[in-house]
Design a protein that fits this description.
41% helix, 92 residues, 2 strands, two-stranded antiparallel sheet
């Protein structure tokens, strides 16, 4: 995805705090596994982002050799929720 991991110290306002690095790495492993819905009318077309396909996400994590814990999964889900909100913000 061309993303850069920024481990800026916690006293800075921007960047990734070290304690969130495992969740970010897990997110990077699964961030291509989306469920979407295409909606179209005679004049417009758009994609609605539903959320991660959890079966595909599990396979991606397994293939990446990442061990998922309930706490880590909760962090990944929080990232997912923010991503869904951002991706759908112009969907009406």
């Amino acid at each position: 995805m061309g993303l850069t991991l920024d481990l800026t110290p916690p006293d800075e306002e921007e960047g990734l705090w070290p304690e969130h690095e495992p969740a970010w790495r897990a997110w990077c492993a699964v961030c291509g596994q989306w469920r979407t819905e295409a909606l179209s009318t005679m004049t417009t077309a758009r994609v609605i982002w539903i959320g991660l396909d959890y079966s595909a996400a599990r396979a991606a994590l397994d293939l990446a050799g990442m061990e998922m814990t309930p706490a880590l999964w909760a962090e990944v889900r929080a990232i997912e929720q923010g991503a869904v909100k951002e991706l759908n913000k112009d969907a009406g």
